[in-house]
Design a protein that fits this description.
The radius of gyration is 19 Å and the shape is globular. Strands 3-2-1-4-5-9-8 form a seven-stranded mixed β-sheet, sandwiched between helices. Strands 6-7 form a two-stranded antiparallel sheet. The protein has a single domain, classed as 3-Layer(aba) Sandwich (Rossmann fold). By secondary structure, it is an alpha/beta fold. It is built from ten helices and nine strands. Helices cover 41% and strands 15% of the residues.
């Protein structure tokens, strides 16, 4: 009887094997025999939307890196200060299982990437060349924030410049592609760019996602609605939305109408789309 109780206790304490990484994410890496992933985001907290998936990759033995293109914060108001935001990001990455040596901070100013776009893209491409990932996950190109939109642009340019292949996937943050009566969409893709997957999380993955969200305390006003949406999806058996990055034309708006970064409070309230387009056209890959 005692032996059975001990055996039962051991079984309860045994670490459950993680679910496998879905084929649509794992196949390119398995074909190369090179399981390295890079999550590349605009700000400290954008990663919360895909944190359970990042942790799943870690638990499946992948070498997982995470990078942010901006310092985030320091723009006044309720957005926090860079030192506070960096400390939160380090904690969040640790929760996902990503060690300090695989955390990368490019350090461009919050809301200022578009003003230094060629330099930001060059640094991002250099990072991708150093990490040599088989999978890169970025923010979606959705017009929510130019700092976000710079990340899929960087992955696209890296694919053109570098001599090794990698798969590009994206995650949604926020945009104004919804119907006119309520255009704001949080953590939802622009539907016109095609279908997506929901990566269902196991108990540990969902726990990681919740803990990461709580780590970004300075961004509670984003984390609360994002968490509510995540809980609803989790209860419905869905999970974190992700899709293969479409073939965007970065010199054109991602959806009709006024983009979120043009509406404010944001990057350049009321600025024309040429503010972004001209920056993109300054990158060699977009010049005739």
């Amino acid at each position: 009887m005692v032996s059975l109780l001990i055996l039962g206790a051991l079984c309860l304490n045994a670490k459950k094997a993680p679910p496998p990484v879905p084929d649509y994410l794992a196949a390119p890496a398995e074909a190369q025999g090179h399981k390295v992933a890079l999550g590349f985001f605009g700000h400290f907290d954008d990663d919360s939307t895909i944190s359970g998936t990042m942790n799943l990759l870690v638990r499946n033995g992948w070498e997982v890196h995470i990078a942010w293109i901006t310092t985030a914060g320091g723009v006044g108001g309720i957005y926090g200060e860079p030192e506070e935001r960096i400390a939160e990001a380090r904690l969040a990455a640790g929760v996902m299982g990503i060690p300090p040596e695989r955390q990368h901070y490019l350090g461009f100013p919050d809301r200022g990437v578009v003003d230094q776009l060629p330099e930001a893209i060059d640094q991002a491409v250099a990072l991708i060349a150093e990490v040599r990932p088989s999978l890169v996950i970025t923010c979606a190109y959705e017009g929510g924030h130019t700092d976000h939109d710079a990340t899929p642009l960087a992955a696209y340019v890296a694919g053109r410049r570098l001599d090794f292949p990698f798969a590009r996937f994206e995650v949604p943050t926020y945009n104004t592609s919804g119907p006119w009566i309520m255009p704001y969409r949080v953590n939802g893709f622009i539907k016109a760019w095609g279908p997506w997957e929901y990566l269902k999380l196991d108990r540990e993955g969902y726990h990681v996602r919740k803990k990461v969200r709580r780590t970004y305390q300075s961004q509670w006003f984003f984390m609360v609605p994002e968490g509510s949406i995540g809980l609803w999806r989790h209860l419905r058996g869905q999970g974190e939305p992700i899709r293969k990055t479409p073939d965007y034309d970065f010199t054109q708006p991602p959806h009709p109408g006024k983009l979120l970064w043009q509406r404010g409070p944001g990057v350049k309230t009321g600025a024309p789309f040429d503010y972004w387009r001209n920056a993109v056209l300054s990158i060699p890959e977009f010049q005739p």
